[in-house]
Amino acid sequence: MDHTLIAGLGSEDRLSRLGDGVLGHILSFLTAKEAARATTLSSRWRDILASVHTVSMEEPEGPIPEYDHGSRSYELREPDPTLPFTVVVTAALFARSRRPAPGAASPPLRALRVSMESYGGLDAFPVDQWVTYAVKHSAPELEVDLRVRRVPICHRPYAYHPAAPAAGSDGDTAVYGGKAHVTPEEVDYSDDELDDTAEAASTDDSSDETDSYWRRSPAVYTVPSRLFSCATLRSLRLGSCNLSPPAVISLPSLEALHLTHVPDDGEHVQRLISASPHLADLTLEACATVKVLSLLDNSCLRRLIILCCHNLATVTVDAQELQAFEYRGAVRGNSFLSVRGNGGSLPSIKSCKIDVCAVCVEKEATSEEDLAALGSFLLPFASTTKRLHLRAARMGSCFVALPAFPAVRHLQLNGRVLCGDDRTAAVATVCTILRRAPDLELLTLFFEPAPLKSGYNKYLHRKRKVSKFVDAHHLHYNKYDTVDCETSAIPPCLETRVKHIRLWHYQGGRAQRTLARFLLRNARVLEKVYCEFAEGPLSIQTKLMREMEGWLVNEEASKEFL
User: Fold this and answer.
1) Count of CA atoms in the C-beta half-sphere (13 A) of 432
2) Which terminus of the chain has fewer Cβ atoms in its 10 Å neighbourhood, N or C?
Protein backbone atom coordinates (compact mmCIF):
# COMPACT_ATOMS: atom_id res chain seq x y z
CA MET A 1 0.00 0.00 0.00
CA ASP A 2 1.16 3.51 -0.76
CA HIS A 3 2.80 5.21 2.24
CA THR A 4 0.96 8.46 1.56
CA LEU A 5 -2.35 6.61 1.74
CA ILE A 6 -1.35 5.04 5.04
CA ALA A 7 -0.42 8.44 6.42
CA GLY A 8 -3.72 9.86 5.26
CA LEU A 9 -5.65 7.10 6.97
CA GLY A 10 -3.66 7.54 10.14
CA SER A 11 -4.38 11.26 10.36
CA GLU A 12 -8.15 10.74 10.16
CA ASP A 13 -9.66 10.67 13.66
CA ARG A 14 -13.19 9.39 13.26
CA LEU A 15 -13.69 9.01 17.00
CA SER A 16 -13.20 12.73 17.61
CA ARG A 17 -15.90 13.48 15.06
CA LEU A 18 -18.50 12.09 17.44
CA GLY A 19 -20.58 14.49 19.47
CA ASP A 20 -19.80 15.46 23.05
CA GLY A 21 -22.69 13.41 24.37
CA VAL A 22 -21.47 10.23 22.64
CA LEU A 23 -17.87 10.73 23.78
CA GLY A 24 -19.03 11.48 27.31
CA HIS A 25 -21.08 8.28 27.28
CA ILE A 26 -17.99 6.31 26.22
CA LEU A 27 -15.82 7.82 28.96
CA SER A 28 -18.51 7.09 31.54
CA PHE A 29 -17.58 3.41 31.37
CA LEU A 30 -14.09 4.25 32.68
CA THR A 31 -13.02 5.31 36.14
CA ALA A 32 -12.68 9.05 36.67
CA LYS A 33 -8.87 8.86 36.53
CA GLU A 34 -8.88 6.84 33.32
CA ALA A 35 -11.39 9.24 31.77
CA ALA A 36 -9.18 12.20 32.72
CA ARG A 37 -6.19 10.53 31.03
CA ALA A 38 -8.27 9.95 27.90
CA THR A 39 -9.02 13.67 27.60
CA THR A 40 -5.31 14.32 26.99
CA LEU A 41 -5.45 12.45 23.67
CA SER A 42 -6.54 15.50 21.77
CA SER A 43 -7.57 19.12 22.26
CA ARG A 44 -10.95 18.04 20.94
CA TRP A 45 -11.39 15.94 24.12
CA ARG A 46 -10.40 18.75 26.48
CA ASP A 47 -13.90 19.44 27.77
CA ILE A 48 -15.46 16.00 27.34
CA LEU A 49 -15.42 15.38 31.10
CA ALA A 50 -18.32 17.83 31.28
CA SER A 51 -20.39 15.29 29.30
CA VAL A 52 -19.79 12.17 31.42
CA HIS A 53 -22.79 10.86 33.32
CA THR A 54 -20.95 8.48 35.69
CA VAL A 55 -18.20 9.23 38.21
CA SER A 56 -16.35 6.18 39.61
CA MET A 57 -13.42 6.46 42.01
CA GLU A 58 -11.66 3.90 44.20
CA GLU A 59 -9.03 4.94 46.70
CA PRO A 60 -5.88 2.78 46.56
CA GLU A 61 -4.65 0.95 49.62
CA GLY A 62 -3.23 3.22 52.27
CA PRO A 63 0.14 2.96 54.01
CA ILE A 64 0.95 -0.38 55.57
CA PRO A 65 3.12 -0.98 58.62
CA GLU A 66 6.77 -1.85 58.17
CA TYR A 67 8.39 -4.11 60.70
CA ASP A 68 11.61 -2.89 62.30
CA HIS A 69 13.63 -5.94 63.35
CA GLY A 70 15.85 -3.84 65.54
CA SER A 71 13.13 -2.38 67.73
CA ARG A 72 10.55 -5.12 66.96
CA SER A 73 7.90 -2.52 66.28
CA TYR A 74 5.70 -1.37 63.44
CA GLU A 75 5.88 1.98 61.68
CA LEU A 76 3.62 3.39 59.00
CA ARG A 77 5.15 4.21 55.66
CA GLU A 78 4.98 7.79 54.57
CA PRO A 79 2.00 8.39 52.26
CA ASP A 80 2.62 9.31 48.66
CA PRO A 81 2.84 13.07 48.05
CA THR A 82 -0.37 13.22 46.03
CA LEU A 83 -3.62 15.08 46.40
CA PRO A 84 -5.99 13.78 49.06
CA PHE A 85 -8.52 11.36 47.70
CA THR A 86 -11.45 13.57 48.70
CA VAL A 87 -10.01 16.44 46.65
CA VAL A 88 -9.69 14.20 43.59
CA VAL A 89 -13.31 13.03 43.84
CA THR A 90 -14.56 16.59 44.29
CA ALA A 91 -12.57 17.72 41.25
CA ALA A 92 -13.98 14.85 39.17
CA LEU A 93 -17.54 15.80 40.06
CA PHE A 94 -17.21 19.52 39.46
CA ALA A 95 -15.34 18.94 36.19
CA ARG A 96 -18.80 18.25 34.77
CA SER A 97 -19.59 21.94 35.25
CA ARG A 98 -16.73 23.28 33.16
CA ARG A 99 -18.21 23.51 29.69
CA PRO A 100 -16.83 25.51 26.74
CA ALA A 101 -20.20 27.09 26.02
CA PRO A 102 -21.53 29.17 28.94
CA GLY A 103 -25.16 28.26 28.29
CA ALA A 104 -24.58 24.53 27.82
CA ALA A 105 -25.85 22.20 30.53
CA SER A 106 -24.17 19.05 31.83
CA PRO A 107 -26.03 15.78 31.38
CA PRO A 108 -27.81 14.42 34.46
CA LEU A 109 -25.68 12.26 36.75
CA ARG A 110 -26.56 8.59 36.43
CA ALA A 111 -24.10 7.07 38.90
CA LEU A 112 -21.75 8.10 41.70
CA ARG A 113 -19.47 5.28 42.85
CA VAL A 114 -16.85 6.02 45.53
CA SER A 115 -14.90 3.45 47.52
CA MET A 116 -12.58 4.78 50.21
CA GLU A 117 -9.80 2.97 51.99
CA SER A 118 -10.08 4.77 55.31
CA TYR A 119 -12.56 7.44 56.28
CA GLY A 120 -11.75 10.11 58.85
CA GLY A 121 -14.15 12.39 60.67
CA LEU A 122 -12.71 15.47 58.96
CA ASP A 123 -13.80 14.08 55.58
CA ALA A 124 -17.53 14.52 56.30
CA PHE A 125 -17.90 17.88 54.54
CA PRO A 126 -16.59 16.83 51.09
CA VAL A 127 -18.52 13.56 51.24
CA ASP A 128 -21.67 15.52 52.04
CA GLN A 129 -20.91 17.65 49.00
CA TRP A 130 -20.71 14.57 46.77
CA VAL A 131 -24.05 13.20 47.92
CA THR A 132 -25.73 16.61 47.68
CA TYR A 133 -24.36 17.11 44.16
CA ALA A 134 -25.56 13.66 43.09
CA VAL A 135 -29.07 14.26 44.39
CA LYS A 136 -29.29 17.74 42.88
CA HIS A 137 -28.04 16.71 39.42
CA SER A 138 -29.55 13.22 39.34
CA ALA A 139 -30.85 11.49 36.26
CA PRO A 140 -34.24 9.71 36.28
CA GLU A 141 -32.42 6.55 37.44
CA LEU A 142 -29.65 7.41 39.91
CA GLU A 143 -27.14 4.97 41.38
CA VAL A 144 -25.20 5.88 44.55
CA ASP A 145 -22.42 3.55 45.73
CA LEU A 146 -20.63 4.95 48.78
CA ARG A 147 -18.25 2.80 50.81
CA VAL A 148 -16.18 4.88 53.18
CA ARG A 149 -13.90 2.17 54.54
CA ARG A 150 -12.81 -1.26 53.38
CA VAL A 151 -12.77 -3.76 56.24
CA PRO A 152 -13.18 -7.55 56.39
CA ILE A 153 -16.76 -8.69 56.09
CA CYS A 154 -16.50 -11.60 58.50
CA HIS A 155 -13.81 -12.10 61.11
CA ARG A 156 -13.17 -13.34 64.61
CA PRO A 157 -11.94 -11.03 67.37
CA TYR A 158 -8.31 -11.72 66.51
CA ALA A 159 -8.74 -11.69 62.74
CA TYR A 160 -7.42 -8.13 62.42
CA HIS A 161 -4.00 -9.24 63.64
CA PRO A 162 -1.41 -9.31 60.86
CA ALA A 163 -0.65 -12.98 61.57
CA ALA A 164 -4.23 -13.99 60.83
CA PRO A 165 -5.57 -12.33 57.67
CA ALA A 166 -9.33 -12.27 57.65
CA ALA A 167 -11.61 -13.57 54.95
CA GLY A 168 -12.56 -10.84 52.58
CA SER A 169 -9.39 -8.81 53.09
CA ASP A 170 -7.77 -7.37 50.01
CA GLY A 171 -4.60 -8.71 48.49
CA ASP A 172 -4.76 -12.27 49.80
CA THR A 173 -5.39 -14.01 46.51
CA ALA A 174 -1.80 -14.43 45.30
CA VAL A 175 -0.45 -16.31 48.31
CA TYR A 176 -2.93 -19.14 47.81
CA GLY A 177 -1.38 -20.30 44.60
CA GLY A 178 -4.67 -19.87 42.78
CA LYS A 179 -5.39 -18.04 39.58
CA ALA A 180 -6.30 -14.39 39.49
CA HIS A 181 -10.01 -15.13 39.22
CA VAL A 182 -10.14 -16.64 42.70
CA THR A 183 -11.78 -14.00 44.88
CA PRO A 184 -11.11 -13.49 48.60
CA GLU A 185 -14.66 -14.71 49.29
CA GLU A 186 -13.67 -18.09 47.86
CA VAL A 187 -10.70 -18.40 50.23
CA ASP A 188 -11.46 -20.42 53.33
CA TYR A 189 -9.99 -20.34 56.80
CA SER A 190 -10.51 -23.42 58.87
CA ASP A 191 -11.02 -23.30 62.63
CA ASP A 192 -7.74 -25.08 63.30
CA GLU A 193 -5.78 -22.72 61.06
CA LEU A 194 -7.20 -19.65 62.77
CA ASP A 195 -6.46 -21.08 66.19
CA ASP A 196 -2.89 -21.80 65.12
CA THR A 197 -2.34 -18.31 63.79
CA ALA A 198 -3.85 -16.77 66.88
CA GLU A 199 -1.49 -18.80 69.05
CA ALA A 200 1.45 -17.78 66.89
CA ALA A 201 0.41 -14.16 67.14
CA SER A 202 0.21 -14.34 70.92
CA THR A 203 3.88 -15.31 71.06
CA ASP A 204 4.96 -12.28 69.04
CA ASP A 205 6.55 -9.66 71.26
CA SER A 206 5.21 -6.89 69.05
CA SER A 207 1.58 -8.04 69.02
CA ASP A 208 0.53 -5.73 71.86
CA GLU A 209 1.95 -2.75 70.03
CA THR A 210 -0.16 -3.35 66.94
CA ASP A 211 -3.47 -4.48 68.43
CA SER A 212 -4.80 -0.95 68.67
CA TYR A 213 -4.05 -0.37 64.98
CA TRP A 214 -5.35 -3.62 63.54
CA ARG A 215 -8.37 -4.06 65.84
CA ARG A 216 -9.79 -0.58 65.51
CA SER A 217 -13.46 -0.51 64.60
CA PRO A 218 -14.59 0.89 61.24
CA ALA A 219 -15.06 4.63 61.09
CA VAL A 220 -18.63 5.60 60.31
CA TYR A 221 -19.97 8.35 58.09
CA THR A 222 -23.51 9.69 58.58
CA VAL A 223 -25.46 9.90 55.33
CA PRO A 224 -27.24 13.24 54.61
CA SER A 225 -30.96 12.95 55.25
CA ARG A 226 -31.84 14.39 51.84
CA LEU A 227 -30.63 11.17 50.22
CA PHE A 228 -33.65 9.37 51.72
CA SER A 229 -36.07 11.64 49.89
CA CYS A 230 -34.50 11.36 46.44
CA ALA A 231 -37.32 10.43 44.08
CA THR A 232 -34.93 9.32 41.31
CA LEU A 233 -32.68 7.06 43.42
CA ARG A 234 -32.80 3.60 41.89
CA SER A 235 -29.76 1.83 43.40
CA LEU A 236 -28.16 2.53 46.78
CA ARG A 237 -25.07 0.86 48.26
CA LEU A 238 -23.64 2.02 51.58
CA GLY A 239 -20.65 0.62 53.44
CA SER A 240 -19.59 1.62 56.97
CA CYS A 241 -22.19 4.38 56.88
CA ASN A 242 -24.55 5.48 59.61
CA LEU A 243 -28.04 5.81 58.16
CA SER A 244 -29.81 7.91 60.79
CA PRO A 245 -32.87 8.10 58.51
CA PRO A 246 -35.38 10.92 58.98
CA ALA A 247 -38.87 10.34 60.28
CA VAL A 248 -40.25 10.37 56.74
CA ILE A 249 -38.49 8.26 54.09
CA SER A 250 -39.59 8.55 50.48
CA LEU A 251 -37.76 6.35 47.98
CA PRO A 252 -40.40 5.48 45.38
CA SER A 253 -37.88 4.45 42.70
CA LEU A 254 -35.42 2.42 44.80
CA GLU A 255 -35.01 -1.06 43.37
CA ALA A 256 -31.60 -2.20 44.70
CA LEU A 257 -30.29 -1.76 48.26
CA HIS A 258 -26.92 -3.03 49.54
CA LEU A 259 -25.91 -2.34 53.16
CA THR A 260 -22.52 -3.35 54.59
CA HIS A 261 -21.33 -2.77 58.17
CA VAL A 262 -24.25 -0.47 58.95
CA PRO A 263 -24.21 0.17 62.73
CA ASP A 264 -27.74 1.61 63.02
CA ASP A 265 -30.40 -0.03 65.13
CA GLY A 266 -32.26 -2.77 63.36
CA GLU A 267 -35.38 -0.60 63.44
CA HIS A 268 -33.70 2.01 61.22
CA VAL A 269 -32.71 -0.61 58.69
CA GLN A 270 -36.22 -2.06 58.78
CA ARG A 271 -37.81 1.37 58.21
CA LEU A 272 -35.56 2.01 55.22
CA ILE A 273 -36.46 -1.34 53.66
CA SER A 274 -40.19 -0.98 54.35
CA ALA A 275 -40.19 2.52 52.84
CA SER A 276 -38.99 1.12 49.50
CA PRO A 277 -42.11 -0.44 47.97
CA HIS A 278 -40.45 -1.28 44.65
CA LEU A 279 -37.35 -2.90 46.15
CA ALA A 280 -36.33 -5.85 43.99
CA ASP A 281 -32.75 -6.57 45.12
CA LEU A 282 -31.71 -6.52 48.80
CA THR A 283 -28.27 -7.35 50.25
CA LEU A 284 -27.43 -7.20 53.95
CA GLU A 285 -23.77 -7.77 54.70
CA ALA A 286 -22.27 -7.89 58.20
CA CYS A 287 -25.14 -5.86 59.69
CA ALA A 288 -24.72 -7.03 63.28
CA THR A 289 -27.54 -4.93 64.75
CA VAL A 290 -30.29 -6.45 62.62
CA LYS A 291 -32.01 -9.21 64.59
CA VAL A 292 -35.44 -9.48 62.94
CA LEU A 293 -36.22 -8.70 59.31
CA SER A 294 -39.67 -8.43 57.76
CA LEU A 295 -40.01 -8.15 54.00
CA LEU A 296 -43.77 -8.52 53.78
CA ASP A 297 -44.10 -4.93 52.53
CA ASN A 298 -41.69 -5.66 49.66
CA SER A 299 -43.88 -7.65 47.31
CA CYS A 300 -41.56 -6.89 44.35
CA LEU A 301 -38.47 -8.49 45.94
CA ARG A 302 -36.76 -10.81 43.45
CA ARG A 303 -33.32 -11.35 45.02
CA LEU A 304 -32.35 -11.58 48.70
CA ILE A 305 -28.73 -11.89 49.90
CA ILE A 306 -27.83 -12.22 53.60
CA LEU A 307 -24.11 -12.48 54.34
CA CYS A 308 -22.61 -12.87 57.82
CA CYS A 309 -25.43 -11.14 59.72
CA HIS A 310 -24.77 -13.31 62.74
CA ASN A 311 -27.42 -11.82 65.05
CA LEU A 312 -30.23 -12.08 62.52
CA ALA A 313 -32.67 -14.61 63.98
CA THR A 314 -35.70 -14.58 61.68
CA VAL A 315 -36.51 -13.37 58.18
CA THR A 316 -40.08 -13.15 56.92
CA VAL A 317 -40.52 -12.84 53.16
CA ASP A 318 -43.26 -12.60 50.59
CA ALA A 319 -43.02 -15.63 48.32
CA GLN A 320 -44.61 -14.22 45.19
CA GLU A 321 -41.65 -12.80 43.24
CA LEU A 322 -38.49 -14.05 45.01
CA GLN A 323 -36.29 -15.74 42.42
CA ALA A 324 -32.78 -15.83 43.97
CA PHE A 325 -31.60 -16.36 47.53
CA GLU A 326 -28.06 -16.31 48.90
CA TYR A 327 -26.98 -16.96 52.48
CA ARG A 328 -23.61 -17.05 54.22
CA GLY A 329 -23.17 -17.75 57.91
CA ALA A 330 -23.68 -20.40 60.52
CA VAL A 331 -25.98 -23.39 60.11
CA ARG A 332 -29.64 -22.39 60.31
CA GLY A 333 -32.84 -24.37 60.73
CA ASN A 334 -36.34 -24.01 59.37
CA SER A 335 -37.17 -21.26 61.88
CA PHE A 336 -34.78 -18.77 60.24
CA LEU A 337 -36.77 -18.19 57.03
CA SER A 338 -40.50 -17.75 57.25
CA VAL A 339 -42.50 -17.65 54.03
CA ARG A 340 -45.94 -16.08 53.82
CA GLY A 341 -48.45 -18.04 51.79
CA ASN A 342 -47.98 -20.95 49.35
CA GLY A 343 -47.69 -23.45 52.18
CA GLY A 344 -44.26 -22.18 53.22
CA SER A 345 -42.66 -22.81 49.80
CA LEU A 346 -41.09 -20.42 47.30
CA PRO A 347 -42.83 -21.08 43.97
CA SER A 348 -40.77 -18.66 41.89
CA ILE A 349 -37.27 -19.38 43.27
CA LYS A 350 -34.73 -20.26 40.58
CA SER A 351 -31.31 -19.84 42.19
CA CYS A 352 -30.10 -20.71 45.69
CA LYS A 353 -26.62 -20.34 47.17
CA ILE A 354 -25.77 -21.54 50.69
CA ASP A 355 -22.33 -20.91 52.18
CA VAL A 356 -21.59 -22.43 55.59
CA CYS A 357 -18.99 -19.88 56.65
CA ALA A 358 -15.91 -21.48 58.19
CA VAL A 359 -14.86 -18.17 59.74
CA CYS A 360 -17.94 -17.43 61.80
CA VAL A 361 -18.80 -20.97 62.98
CA GLU A 362 -17.01 -22.60 65.88
CA LYS A 363 -16.60 -25.96 64.14
CA GLU A 364 -17.52 -27.69 60.94
CA ALA A 365 -21.15 -28.74 60.83
CA THR A 366 -21.00 -32.52 60.88
CA SER A 367 -23.34 -33.52 63.72
CA GLU A 368 -26.69 -35.08 62.90
CA GLU A 369 -28.50 -32.10 64.42
CA ASP A 370 -26.64 -29.64 62.20
CA LEU A 371 -27.14 -31.72 59.07
CA ALA A 372 -30.84 -32.11 59.76
CA ALA A 373 -31.21 -28.38 60.49
CA LEU A 374 -29.51 -27.46 57.25
CA GLY A 375 -31.73 -29.85 55.34
CA SER A 376 -34.85 -28.30 56.82
CA PHE A 377 -33.50 -24.82 56.06
CA LEU A 378 -33.22 -25.73 52.36
CA LEU A 379 -36.62 -27.40 52.14
CA PRO A 380 -38.54 -24.28 50.93
CA PHE A 381 -36.14 -23.99 47.96
CA ALA A 382 -36.29 -27.63 46.91
CA SER A 383 -39.25 -27.77 44.56
CA THR A 384 -38.38 -25.10 41.95
CA THR A 385 -34.66 -24.28 42.29
CA LYS A 386 -32.81 -24.77 39.00
CA ARG A 387 -29.35 -23.57 40.07
CA LEU A 388 -28.00 -24.76 43.43
CA HIS A 389 -24.65 -23.56 44.80
CA LEU A 390 -23.36 -25.16 48.02
CA ARG A 391 -20.17 -24.21 49.81
CA ALA A 392 -18.50 -25.63 52.92
CA ALA A 393 -14.99 -25.99 54.27
CA ARG A 394 -14.97 -29.63 53.14
CA MET A 395 -16.70 -30.09 49.82
CA GLY A 396 -20.26 -31.24 50.38
CA SER A 397 -19.64 -32.29 53.99
CA CYS A 398 -22.54 -30.23 55.39
CA PHE A 399 -25.06 -31.14 52.72
CA VAL A 400 -25.43 -34.92 52.88
CA ALA A 401 -28.94 -34.57 54.37
CA LEU A 402 -30.34 -32.45 51.56
CA PRO A 403 -33.97 -32.73 50.53
CA ALA A 404 -34.66 -33.76 46.94
CA PHE A 405 -34.16 -31.02 44.34
CA PRO A 406 -36.08 -32.36 41.33
CA ALA A 407 -35.79 -29.13 39.28
CA VAL A 408 -32.03 -28.54 39.66
CA ARG A 409 -30.18 -28.40 36.36
CA HIS A 410 -26.92 -26.80 37.53
CA LEU A 411 -25.19 -27.84 40.75
CA GLN A 412 -22.00 -26.22 42.01
CA LEU A 413 -20.01 -27.49 44.99
CA ASN A 414 -17.24 -25.42 46.57
CA GLY A 415 -14.86 -26.72 49.19
CA ARG A 416 -11.60 -28.47 49.89
CA VAL A 417 -10.65 -31.97 48.80
CA LEU A 418 -7.07 -32.20 49.97
CA CYS A 419 -4.39 -34.65 48.92
CA GLY A 420 -4.50 -36.60 52.18
CA ASP A 421 -8.28 -36.79 52.48
CA ASP A 422 -10.21 -40.04 52.47
CA ARG A 423 -10.85 -40.53 48.76
CA THR A 424 -13.71 -42.96 49.31
CA ALA A 425 -15.48 -40.53 51.61
CA ALA A 426 -15.05 -37.70 49.08
CA VAL A 427 -16.71 -39.77 46.34
CA ALA A 428 -19.47 -40.96 48.66
CA THR A 429 -20.29 -37.40 49.74
CA VAL A 430 -20.60 -36.12 46.17
CA CYS A 431 -22.66 -39.15 45.17
CA THR A 432 -25.06 -38.58 48.06
CA ILE A 433 -25.67 -35.02 46.88
CA LEU A 434 -26.02 -36.05 43.22
CA ARG A 435 -28.77 -38.50 44.10
CA ARG A 436 -30.83 -35.57 45.36
CA ALA A 437 -30.73 -33.94 41.89
CA PRO A 438 -32.17 -36.53 39.48
CA ASP A 439 -32.38 -34.16 36.46
CA LEU A 440 -28.94 -32.56 36.83
CA GLU A 441 -27.27 -31.54 33.57
CA LEU A 442 -24.33 -29.34 34.60
CA LEU A 443 -22.00 -30.20 37.48
CA THR A 444 -19.36 -27.70 38.68
CA LEU A 445 -16.75 -28.51 41.32
CA PHE A 446 -14.52 -25.74 42.66
CA PHE A 447 -11.60 -27.22 44.60
CA GLU A 448 -10.44 -24.64 47.12
CA PRO A 449 -6.79 -24.64 48.20
CA ALA A 450 -5.46 -25.75 51.54
CA PRO A 451 -5.42 -23.15 54.33
CA LEU A 452 -2.30 -21.10 54.96
CA LYS A 453 0.33 -22.50 57.23
CA SER A 454 0.30 -20.96 60.68
CA GLY A 455 2.60 -18.04 61.26
CA TYR A 456 2.34 -16.51 57.78
CA ASN A 457 2.33 -12.74 57.95
CA LYS A 458 1.66 -10.99 54.65
CA TYR A 459 2.72 -7.64 56.11
CA LEU A 460 6.07 -8.87 57.41
CA HIS A 461 6.82 -10.49 54.06
CA ARG A 462 5.60 -7.62 51.88
CA LYS A 463 9.16 -6.39 51.27
CA ARG A 464 10.91 -9.75 51.40
CA LYS A 465 11.33 -12.29 48.64
CA VAL A 466 7.97 -13.89 47.99
CA SER A 467 9.20 -16.57 45.63
CA LYS A 468 8.73 -19.32 48.20
CA PHE A 469 5.06 -18.34 48.53
CA VAL A 470 4.32 -17.69 44.86
CA ASP A 471 6.31 -20.64 43.53
CA ALA A 472 4.80 -23.04 46.04
CA HIS A 473 1.97 -24.82 44.23
CA HIS A 474 -0.81 -27.21 45.15
CA LEU A 475 -0.45 -29.62 42.23
CA HIS A 476 0.06 -33.26 43.13
CA TYR A 477 0.61 -36.26 40.90
CA ASN A 478 1.91 -39.71 41.74
CA LYS A 479 1.49 -42.39 39.11
CA TYR A 480 1.60 -45.09 41.79
CA ASP A 481 -1.47 -43.74 43.62
CA THR A 482 -4.55 -45.93 43.54
CA VAL A 483 -7.44 -43.87 42.23
CA ASP A 484 -10.01 -46.61 41.78
CA CYS A 485 -13.17 -46.32 43.84
CA GLU A 486 -15.72 -49.08 43.46
CA THR A 487 -19.26 -48.21 44.46
CA SER A 488 -22.46 -50.08 43.82
CA ALA A 489 -24.66 -46.97 43.87
CA ILE A 490 -23.83 -44.71 40.94
CA PRO A 491 -26.16 -41.67 40.92
CA PRO A 492 -28.70 -42.10 38.10
CA CYS A 493 -28.29 -38.52 36.89
CA LEU A 494 -24.56 -39.12 36.30
CA GLU A 495 -25.27 -41.98 33.92
CA THR A 496 -28.25 -40.56 32.06
CA ARG A 497 -28.46 -36.77 32.46
CA VAL A 498 -25.15 -35.00 33.17
CA LYS A 499 -23.86 -33.43 29.93
CA HIS A 500 -21.30 -30.93 31.22
CA ILE A 501 -18.71 -31.23 33.99
CA ARG A 502 -16.54 -28.31 35.07
CA LEU A 503 -13.56 -28.66 37.40
CA TRP A 504 -12.09 -25.40 38.71
CA HIS A 505 -8.71 -25.08 40.41
CA TYR A 506 -8.05 -28.80 39.98
CA GLN A 507 -4.97 -29.68 42.01
CA GLY A 508 -4.65 -33.41 41.53
CA GLY A 509 -3.73 -35.50 44.53
CA ARG A 510 -5.18 -38.90 45.21
CA ALA A 511 -8.57 -37.71 46.57
CA GLN A 512 -9.32 -35.25 43.75
CA ARG A 513 -8.08 -37.64 41.08
CA THR A 514 -10.28 -40.41 42.47
CA LEU A 515 -13.30 -38.14 42.44
CA ALA A 516 -12.60 -36.89 38.90
CA ARG A 517 -12.06 -40.44 37.63
CA PHE A 518 -15.32 -41.63 39.15
CA LEU A 519 -17.30 -38.80 37.56
CA LEU A 520 -15.75 -39.08 34.08
CA ARG A 521 -15.88 -42.88 33.95
CA ASN A 522 -19.60 -42.91 34.77
CA ALA A 523 -20.83 -39.86 32.83
CA ARG A 524 -22.04 -41.81 29.82
CA VAL A 525 -23.83 -38.96 28.05
CA LEU A 526 -21.17 -36.35 28.78
CA GLU A 527 -20.80 -33.81 25.98
CA LYS A 528 -18.14 -31.46 27.38
CA VAL A 529 -15.58 -31.47 30.18
CA TYR A 530 -13.82 -28.28 31.26
CA CYS A 531 -10.88 -28.30 33.64
CA GLU A 532 -8.82 -25.40 34.93
CA PHE A 533 -5.70 -26.49 36.78
CA ALA A 534 -4.18 -24.78 39.77
CA GLU A 535 -0.97 -22.94 39.04
CA GLY A 536 2.11 -25.11 39.01
CA PRO A 537 4.65 -26.85 36.78
CA LEU A 538 3.48 -27.47 33.23
CA SER A 539 4.79 -31.02 33.39
CA ILE A 540 2.38 -31.92 36.22
CA GLN A 541 -0.53 -30.19 34.49
CA THR A 542 0.19 -32.17 31.33
CA LYS A 543 0.22 -35.49 33.21
CA LEU A 544 -3.06 -34.68 34.91
CA MET A 545 -4.59 -33.67 31.57
CA ARG A 546 -3.51 -36.86 29.79
CA GLU A 547 -4.80 -38.91 32.67
CA MET A 548 -8.17 -37.18 32.59
CA GLU A 549 -8.50 -37.67 28.83
CA GLY A 550 -8.06 -41.40 29.34
CA TRP A 551 -10.89 -41.54 31.86
CA LEU A 552 -13.57 -40.21 29.53
CA VAL A 553 -16.05 -42.96 28.78
CA ASN A 554 -17.49 -40.87 25.93
CA GLU A 555 -14.56 -40.34 23.62
CA GLU A 556 -16.54 -37.91 21.46
CA ALA A 557 -17.01 -35.44 24.30
CA SER A 558 -15.24 -32.12 23.78
CA LYS A 559 -12.39 -31.29 26.14
CA GLU A 560 -11.06 -27.94 27.30
CA PHE A 561 -8.08 -27.62 29.64
CA LEU A 562 -6.53 -24.42 30.98
Assistant:
1) 15
2) N
